[in-house]
Amino acid sequence: GICVLGSSNMDLVAFAERAPSLGETVMGTRFLTVPGGKGANQAIAAARAGGAVRMIGAVGGDNFGRALRGVLRASGVDDTALRETTEPTGIAHIVVDGGGSNAIIVIAGANGTVTSLSVHDEGIVTSSSVLLLQLELPIEAAIAGAAAAHRAGVRVILTPAPSRPIPDALFANVDLLAPNQHELADITGIRDPKTALVSLLEKVPAAVVTLGSEGCLYGARGLPPFHVPAPKVDAVDTTAAGDTFVGVLAVALAEGRDIVEALHRANAAAALSVQRAGASSSMPARDEIDAFLLR
Ligand code: ADP
Q1: Any idea where the Carbohydrate kinase PfkB domain is (predicted)?
Q2: What is the mean pLDDT of each run of 10 residues along the chain (295 residues)?
Q3: Which of 34, 156, 223, 285 sits at a 20 to 30 Å CA gap from 278?
């Protein structure tokens, strides 16, 4: 199965023609509360794609926490290792203007309490076949999770988002790094994706860079990098496209599919998700992915 060690947030999204400047009040047009957090998003994407998924993380004992748990469970994610803390559920406070640009404040809340793994958590990690990590929990948690997984031969996939320095203690135990173009440039300081990817292989044995509508670029030590194009679709909302991609990639690899087939499935699922609004609500079910690939 798949273990996700990661964040759960409630996204509070306010839409207005123009974002207010400091000291100013503007009238908005719409407000949404949307379950999110990269950890929860990847867990939901993987479960919807047919994976057996367990999520390690934390929420508060509040309405947002209960709502997040409800969405995870409804998608089939095992939330028994999602702890309830006295800190409030993490939130992302988002303002979206008429042009679609956004400004975001994230409050870690309960996510910030996940600084280590319990013995029970370690058991979940080591009995999985794939561990999914992102950088929205305290870095100590990711380091501990990756180390436990690596010792047990569990494949570790890291989404290096949001961008922050990655200690070698984490890099050392990552099997597959999955940045988007911006994160790749932040990590390597190199703009050209192919050149950056090759330089990344000094740190990790394999990497896949997502390229939006262009699909993805995969590279592994000792192999020439190759490109897997994305299906052509009309995108309406690319929120969580990257999380859908990684969640579905993990399921395909856990099922023993080869990397080329797994990347095709991940591209297909992400392309399906960008045609619908929302994060978790836009993620495709397994039969939709299968049908899309047969088209
Ligand atoms: P992120 O959402 O993390 O910024 P990307 O924008 O690179 O990541 O998108 C992740 C994946 O989603 C891509 O590799 C691709 O498979 C799919 N995707 C994103 N945008 C589109 C699009 N316009 N058309 C088709 N697929 C897309």
Answers
A1: 2-285
A2: 98 94 96 94 98 98 98 98 98 91 93 98 98 98 98 98 96 98 97 96 97 97 96 90 97 97 98 88 94 93
A3: 156
- In this prediction the pTM is 0.96
Domains and CATH numbers, the chain: 2-8+36-90+109-294 (3.40.1190.20)
Residue of 243, 258, 287, 290 marked active site: 243
Residues with CB under 6 A from ligand 1: 180, 210-213, 215-216, 230, 233, 235, 238, 241-242, 245, 267, 270-271, 274
Nearest Cα to 85, choosing from 46, 127, 49, 138?
Answer: 138
Please count the other Cβ atoms lying within 10 Å of the Cβ belonging to residue 27. Answer: 8
Query: Which residue's CA is minimally distant from atom 1 of ligand 1?
Result: 242
Which residue owns the Cα nearest ligand 1 atom 10?
242
